[in-house]
# Entry
Amino acid sequence: MIDAILNRRSIRKFKKTDVSPTIIEEIIQAGILAPSSKNRQPWRFTVVSGAAKAGMLSAMEQGILREEVNPLLPDSSAHLNGARCTLEIMRQAPVTIFITNALGLDLSRSLTEEDRISEICNAQSIGAAIQNMTLTACELGLGSLWICDIFFALEELTTWLHAEGQLFAALAVGYADESPDPRPRNDISCITRWKTE
# Structure
């Protein structure tokens, strides 16, 4: 496990080699084994590969184009170029796994304190599932990229997926065609407080 944590990287260049469904199922199974608040297991997975990629890429591209003129995320417009790069990564990766929160509430809905806490707990649970998946992909010799730029095409991808719940993230998976160096991390002494009394 420690080796997978040390060696995992966010991969943005993938080989064209297909990934077997058995390996993808093993990655998803690792996600299912994550801890979840009240054992709600809010995650749902949609695996996109092969000919289905065309619809996914079209929905993502339409969302980015719409975001340019009618943004859902107006304060994030500086990151649209990053979303365009993500579209190209999704085009390269042989598999994209979409993760939805089956218990997720509509983003436009006003939340009570209890709803907000429930959403936070479910987000932590799904984050743990995705982390398990990225580490398992690494352990199996694959690369992955945890994608949040899907929110630039939230409406379009949600409509295309017909998935249960609120779209949460995507994970591009494939055989890495790059070996990035580790990204800098804050030193433990700068970000950790110890209270002993």
